[in-house]
Amino acid sequence: MSNQSFYSLNTPLFGTDGIRGKAGDLLTASFAVQLGFWAGEVLKSEKTVPGPIIIGQDSRNSSDMLAMSIASGLASTGIDVWYLGLCPTPCVAYITNTSEAIGGIMISASHNPPEDNGIKFFDTNGIKLSTAISQKIEEGLRGELLPTVSQKKLWGKILYKNNLINNYYDFLRKSLPPSFSCRGMRIVLDLAWGASVNIAPNIFKQLDATVFSLHEEPKGELINVNCGSTNLKLLQQAVEKYKADIGFAFDGDADRVMAVDNTGQIVDGDFILFLWGKYLMQKGNLPDNLLVTTIMANLGFEKAWEKLGGTLIRTPVGDRYVQAKMIETGAKLGGEQSGHIICHNHGISGDGIQTSLQICSLLQQSETSLSKLVENSFKPYPQILHNIRFKDRNSLNLWKDCEALQKGIEVAKQSMKSNGRVLVRASGTEPLLRIMIESESSDIAQYWINYLVSIVEKYLNIK
C-alpha cells in the first residue's frame, strides 16, 4: 500500500484542516482507497476495543467518489463504516463522540470552490486528529509502515446509517433553553448549496421561525459559488427584501457561520464571540472570563473584551488550534473571525447551525435586535486582508526566506507600534499568502498593504 507516487515526500499531506486539494489531482479514487486503508490501520492500533468509523460528506460532485473509495479502504482493514451521507461536519464529530466509533471522516473542502475537495479526520472523541496520528497515516502512505498481518481475512461492512442524523437534531434542540421558540422571528438562511440544506431550515421551522432559504438544494457544482459564509452580498439583499430580523450564511460543510443583522450589516465571528461571551460571563458560565481566538481577531474586539474584565488568548489560525487551547485552559468558548465558533458548554466542535440557534436564543432573552447588540459591543479597528495566489505551494513556501519581505514586515510593525498589527501567513488549505494589516486608520492600513504586496510581486514568483 505504498503511495510514494502521489505526492512529494517533502510536502506534508495533512494541513491545518485535514487533506485538501483539487479532486482528480491528489484526491483520486485510488488515493482515497489507500488513505482509507492506512487510516484504518493506524486508528485500529490506537484502540483496544474495535468499533466503526463514521463517514459524512458535503454535496460536491466528487464527494460520493471519495466517500465510497475511502470506505472501501477502511473495510479492507476489517473496520465497519457507518455512512451518514449528506450532513454537516459537526454532525460527524458529534456522532463519532457519542457512539462506539473509533474515528470519523468528513468529505468536504469547507468554504473552497466546487472543484476542490478535502478529507477531515476525527478521533474517537470527535476532535481533529492529533499531528502524531496524522503523521503515522502519512508514514503508511509513504511505505514506511507494515500493514497488520492477519491469519484470516476480515472484511468490514459499509452500513448506511442516515438515521443517526436524527441524533444530531436532538442534540441541537437540547442545547437550547427548554422554552425557546423562534415564533415571530423572520430568518434568512444562505445554505451555500451545501451540507446544511436539509438540517438548518428544518430545525428553524420546527422552532416556529419564518424561514427564507437561499441556495437551498445540494448542488455540488455550485457549492460556495458567490454565496455562503465567504460571500454575504445576496444574504444582505435578502434580509432587506424580506424585512428579516437576522440572516445566517453557512459554508459548504456548515462548521462555520456568518450573520447579517436586521439593518444588513455583517456580524462576523469576532462579534459573535464577544456577544455570546458577554452573555455567558453575565450568567457565570464562562470560566475565568476567558475567550480563545486566533491571531486574526480584531484588536478592537480584544481591547473591548479586556475592558469588560475578560481575558483573550490568541492561537494560530485554524479551529484545531483553538480547540486544543480550549482543552488546555478549560475555556468554554472560542472561535475564529471567519465564523468557526466552539462552545464546550454544549458541544465539542465548531458548529455553524448550533451557533446560529444560540444567537437567536440570545436575541430572544435580550429582547432587542442584533444591530443594537452590535452597536453596544465594540468598534473594530480597520482591518484589511489581501490574498496573493501563488502558482503552487512550493513557490509559496519561499516567502519566509525572502529578506526584502521580512524587512518590509518589520518596517510596517515599527511604524504602527501598538496602534496596529501586521500578520503575514501562508494559507493552510490553498496556495495563498495572506497579508493582514490592522490600524486605527484605514488609510494607514491600506498604505502598508500596498507596500507589502508590491514587495511580494517584485521578489517572489507568483505567476
UniProtKB/TrEMBL annotation:
GO molecular function, one term: phosphoglucosamine mutase activity
Enzyme class, first EC level, given as a word: isomerase
GO cellular component: cytosol
Residue positions where Phosphoserine is found in the record: 110
Function: Catalyzes the conversion of glucosamine-6-phosphate to glucosamine-1-phosphate.
Similarity comment: family membership: Belongs to the phosphohexose mutase family.
The protein's name in its UniProt record: Phosphoglucosamine mutase
Organism per entry: Atelocyanobacterium thalassa (isolate ALOHA)
